[in-house]
Amino acid sequence: MANPHAVPITLSDADRATLKSWTRRRSTSQGLAMRARIVLACAKPGATNLAVAARLGVSNLTVSKWRRRFADSGVQGLGDTPRPGAPRSILDEQVERVITTTLETLPRGATHWSTRRLAAELGMSQTAISRIWRAFALAPHRSETFKLSTDLQFIDKVRDIVGLYLNPPDRALVLCVDEKPSIQATSDTAPAIPMRPGQLERHTHDYVRHGTTDLFAALDIKAGTVIGELHQRHRSVDFRHFLATVEQATPKELELHLVLDNASIHKTPLIHRWLARHPRVHLHFTPTSASWLNLVECWFSILTARQLKRGRFRSTRALECAIRAYIAENNAHPKPFVWTKTADEILSSVASFCKGISNSRH
Fold it and tell me: What's the pLDDT tens digit per position in 37-56?
């Protein structure tokens, strides 16, 4: 039985043609097209709001609203009503001028625009400039650096290392190896002020140095565990000692594939002689200026953020104890490091970036 409160809909031929055109025309907004479908469905004999809502996948209140709006105002009633608030004061031409001025010009005697200076230049308010910059993600006061590898074997090395990550050899262990040298043991010159509601933890701006230590680490990306060793110096003999530690700490029946950078201590005759005596250990070098390919760098950044950056140590012994404790906690609750991008995706991304900067007018 039809709802007695539903407003009856009667369509003229002209109204029906207009509504049907709105449902078919690609340039029509989705909202307006749905309103036209609602009215056309409501015009059928015996159509209830509930039935139309179920058929079109909208709410009963939506059907009731647009049914009544059409009954009161016809097809003109299906448009959007003016929204409350002050009318827009910044024109599209002004927005375009702000963007082009920001991107294509420089102020006299400066390297970049500020909101105040650009506002004075264009005769607009600072607030308007700030809003436009936020809307288009423009930040002239910020910049970043980039570095491209000039390694002649870049492509081959990327494919080699990414192949180890995505398709490791059978009966083999892939370890990412690197050193974090000169980790400083520092302490404040006065006691820290602890964090309280509404107040951050505070430390003195200056500090006292108590020496440094070097961390050698090998990350098992599949397991997420780390083999770590601390040395007072960063020499080839120390690296050989760490290789021996890694070789002894891993199952003898597995081949070891170590991903590491091109540091000089990794390529000395001392290391070559050690590798000759341990044929199950294979070194894979990342391209120069491409440390992002070595996943142990990610682990180093986590170690820094969680333990080293805000840590205060009155001796290198205290610093080393903290690092060993972190490695033990990491190995007790390890999380695998998962590489997702293929070599082709990486090389395509690098090629696209190089093409972009080669076409830059700067």
Answer: 999 988 888 888 898 889 89
- Total Cβ atoms within 10 A of residue 268: 15
Rounded distance between C-alpha atoms, residue 200 and residue 19, angstroms: 61
Task: Tabulate helix, strand, coil % of the chain (nearest 5).
Answer: 45, 15, 40
Residue 299 scores a pLDDT above 90: yes
Task: Identify the H or E element spanning 312.
Answer: none
DSSP state, residue 81: P
pTM of the model: 0.69
Residues 6+ apart with CB under 8 A from 42: 6, 9, 49, 52, 63, 67, 70
**Edge to edge, what strands does the sheet with 207-220 contain?**
226-231, 207-220, 172-188, 255-260, 281-285
Q: Which two tokens stand for residue 321?
A: 């104890």
Q: Which residues are within 8 A (CB) of 174 and not within 5 positions of it... i.e. 6 or more apart?
A: 164, 165, 168, 220, 221, 222, 257, 259
User: Rounded CA gap, 60 and 51, in Å?
Assistant: 9
Q: Which two tokens stand for residue 105?
A: 């010009």
Close Cβ partners of 351 (under 8 Å, ≥ 6 residues apart): none
d(CA 177, CA 158): 16
What is the pLDDT averaged over residues 169-173?
Answer: 91
Instruction: Supply 355's token pair.
Output: 């093409």
Helix (H) or strand (E) holding 126: helix 126-135
Q: Which of 295, 121, 308 is nearest to 222 (CA)?
A: 295
Count of residues in the chain: 362
Of 292, 290, 327, 288, the C-alpha closest to 307 is 327
Residue of 345, 166, 183, 145 whose CA lies nearest to 259: 166
Phi, psi torsion values for 317, nearest 5 degrees? -65, -40
What span, in angstroms and rounded, lies between the C-alpha atoms of 182 and 358? Answer: 37
Query: Residue 346 half-sphere exposure, CB side, CA atoms within 13 Å?
Result: 20
